[in-house]
Amino acid sequence: MKKTPLLNIALSRVIASLGHGDILVIGDAGLPVPPGVELIDLALTQGIPDFISTLRVVLSEMQVESHVLAEEILLKQPPALAELTTLTEQAALGERCLVSHDVFKQLSGKARAVVRTGECQPYCNIALVSGVTF
Questions:
Q1: Angle at CA 126, nearest 5°, toward 87 and 99?
Q2: Is 83 strand, coil or helix?
Q3: Which position among 9, 17, 20, 46 bears the catalytic label?
Q4: What start-end ranges are recorded for coiled-coil regions in this protein (predicted)?
Q5: 20 is an active site residue
Q6: Over the stretch 8-28, which tens digit does the pLDDT of each residue have?
Q7: Which residues of the chain have pLDDT under 70?
Q8: d(CA 8, CA 35)
Q9: Residue 50 labeled ligand binder
Q10: Whole-number Å distance between alpha carbons of 132 and 134
Q11: 78: number of Cβ within 10 Å
């Protein structure tokens, strides 16, 4: 059995397959998934699993170079924003880039996969850009 926290087979497989610059999106329950992009659906019910818990587990296995958020998250201020700010300050998420929500949805079309959570707070979506460990 794996020693790291991530147990989901599909998500672990996608993270293991990422190369430098590849994108993995973690989204709320309402984020549309573009045709042709793999969906890893973790959502069970409203709030389960939540966005931040999912992000923390992904970060336990994924080297992140930078991340992209929809600028609307700064206007709505969902509770997850405080944790995103802390993770950015701790260099766990690399450099931050803000784009409009429409541009974020277009960027999702370039992702290797979209991870759907049960999060129902507005704009709790992040695009993680894969880094390297060397």
A1: 105
A2: helix
A3: 20
A4: none
A5: yes
A6: 999 999 999 999 999 999 999
A7: none
A8: 22
A9: no
A10: 6
A11: 18
123 in a known ligand binding site: yes
Q: Are 118 and 48 in contact (CB under 8 A)?
A: yes
Residues 6+ apart with CB under 8 A from 123: 28, 69, 70, 72, 73, 76, 78, 101
28 appears as a binding residue in the annotation: yes
What pLDDT score was predicted for residue 2? 82
Secondary structure of residue 118 in the 3-state scheme: coil
Please give the Cα distance from 51 to 59 (Å, whole number): 12
Q: Residue 67, annotated ligand binder?
A: no
Judge whether 125 is annotated as a binding position.
yes
Beta bridge partners of residue 26, listed in sequence order: 115, 126
Distance between CA atoms of 82 and 131, rounded to whole angstroms? Answer: 23
- DSSP labels, 10-66: HHHHHHHH--TT-EEEEE-TT----TTSEEEE---BTTBS-HHHHHHHHHTT--EEE
Give CA–CA dist 27/35, Å, rounded. 15
Query: Angle formed by the axes of helices 80-89 and 51-59, to 10°?
Result: 20
